[in-house]
Amino acid sequence: MAKIIAFSRQRRPPSREQQATGKPHVLAPPAWAGGAHADNPPASGILVSVVVPTCRRPQLLSHCLASLLLQRADAARFEIIVVDDAPCSSTRIVVSDWAAVAGPAVTYIASSGPHGPAAARNRGWRAARGAIIAFTDDDTVASPDWLRQGLQAFAADVVAVWGRIDMPAPARLTDYERDAKNLETAEFVTANCFCRKQALEALDGFDERFRLAWREDADLYFRLLGLAGRIVHAPAAVITHPIRPASWGVSLRQQKKIAFDALLYKKHPALYRQKIRAAPRWDYYLIVAAMLSGIGALALRQTMPAALAGLFWLALSARFCAMRIAPAVKTPAHIAEMIVTSALIPPLAVFWRLVGAIKFRSRCI
């Protein structure tokens, strides 16, 4: 049977520095040699705790758990912690069924809130017994050597490790699939990373203001860079992350995530420009400015300025659409989707960017 834990809504209060600046207090431990290592397990016997947040995807979670239970690792040295961000009987049954045949310890945590992947991961690692925390997602499949390869990268001065993500896909991709596949080349994503629990404690874990699955891993990575110790890449620690099917117009719904770019930029402006986006999306701002100018001119019955603004908007939107279509699959349905969404993405992106800038009191980026 799985061990069941129910978490309350209580959480650690922010420090005075966090309240004043919105930034976490970053500690720099003088050395990490005293932390857990493959040859130096903690007193509990558990060396690594695998944290898997999940939300109403029991079938995907089952595949993930199967791959974790097939790890070429000593079952007595690792545990699996599933944090259910939308507690339901289906997810609990899946965890209990696998726990009944599992070698390692399996724990189910029903999270009543706060919600979001950042909060769920915090509940997981804080309940963990291992000195090293391995993070992955509920829709991934771990290679049999994933844990072993990740742990082998932990030298005495290493605070965190990130592995390789494989996203199998056809040769010709849709725009959505091309965007999703960028995860393969991203640095330090929570679908495949390992952190010392001591480091997470020093940083107070993930920033739970990142309510969606967007930029919370980059924020943790940037803060880990401020600790004394190295962050290394372990390409042999492989996680397969299939690209999930998406409905028509998925790119429009994804624009809501951009609000959290404002929070990441506020906390780490230099690193944001260095690793996320070197410059603002001026093309979006120009498209929206042309659209609003045309609407304003029409309202004032200024036909010629409205026509010029409309042509400028059309040219910029057509350029944006062509850039998205060029490298993607060119079926009639996909081209039609690109035409419609290319007209709507810039105003939606600018809107959510402004929402984030206001909400997090950040400069518009």
Care to describe what's here?
- The chain is an alpha/beta fold and about 375 residues long.
- It is built from 14 helices and nine strands.
- It has a nine-stranded mixed β-sheet.
- The chain is elongated and about 75 Å long.
List keywords for this structure.
365 residues; alpha/beta; 9-stranded mixed sheet; 14 helices; 44% helix
SSE blueprint and pairings:
Elements: E1 3-7, H1 16-21, E2 48-54, H2 58-69, E3 78-84, H3 89-101, E4 105-111, H4 117-126, E5 132-135, E6 141-142, H5 146-152, E7 158-166, H6 175-181, E8 193-196, H7 197-203, H8 216-224, E9 230-240, H9 250-254, H10 259-267, H11 269-276, H12 282-299, H13 303-325, H14 332-359
Parallel strand pairs: 1-4, 2-3, 2-5, 3-4, 7-9
Antiparallel strand pairs: 5-8, 6-9, 7-8
